[in-house]
């Protein structure tokens, strides 16, 4: 059985380093009850979760994608997000640009240029490095 896309989020560029905002997002969305799926080309596990090297490798679907990679890298993989049923893409600070927002829209997804942690009423400071 493949996972349902409801309450499932892909974190593109998730980091094993707890000081990184992408790692804080993994912890934040888990606390909010989401099934979190980290994507990183080299890491094998982040915060106890299995990591997938690409969006295409993620089993099942997801409703959200949180992007923490440079816009020029994200543009290359947005078609994979569509294939996973993603409806909204958070383009976090440093990951946003007019080009990636346009690509997300062109593919029928909603771009959200905001910090994905702040957008859910939380603060990155709530997720310490230790």
Classify the fold: give the CATH topology.
Rossmann fold
How many helical stretches?
3
Outline type? globular
Ends: how far apart? 36 Å
Q: Mean pLDDT score, rounded?
A: 96
Q: How many domains make up the coordinates? A: 1
Rounded to an integer, what's the Rg over CA atoms? Answer: 13 Å
Strand order of the largest sheet: 2-1-5-6-7
Task: Please give the share of residues in helix.
Answer: 25-40%
CATH architecture: 3-Layer(aba) Sandwich
Uncertain spans: none
Would you tell me the structural class of the helices and strands? alpha/beta
Number of strands: 7
Given this structure, which CATH class is correct?
Alpha Beta
The CATH homologous superfamily is named NAD(P)-binding Rossmann-like Domain
SSE string, helix = H, strand = E?
EHEEEEHEHE
Proportion in β-strands: 15-25%
- By oligomeric state, this entry counts as single chain
Largest sheet: 5 strands, parallel
């Amino acid at each position: 059985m493949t996972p349902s896309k409801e309450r499932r989020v892909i974190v593109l560029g998730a980091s094993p380093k707890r000081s990184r905002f992408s790692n804080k997002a993994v912890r934040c969305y888990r606390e909010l009850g989401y099934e979190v799926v980290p994507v990183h080309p080299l890491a094998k596990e982040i915060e106890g979760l299995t990591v997938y090297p690409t969006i295409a490798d993620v089993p099942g679907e997801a409703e959200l994608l949180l992007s923490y990679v440079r816009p020029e890298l994200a543009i290359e993989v947005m078609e994979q997000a569509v294939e996973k049923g993603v409806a909204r893409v958070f383009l976090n600070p440093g990951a946003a640009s007019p080009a990636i927002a346009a690509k997300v829209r062109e593919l029928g997804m909603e771009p959200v240029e905001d910090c994905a942690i702040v957008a859910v009423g939380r603060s990155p400071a709530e997720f310490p490095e230790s």
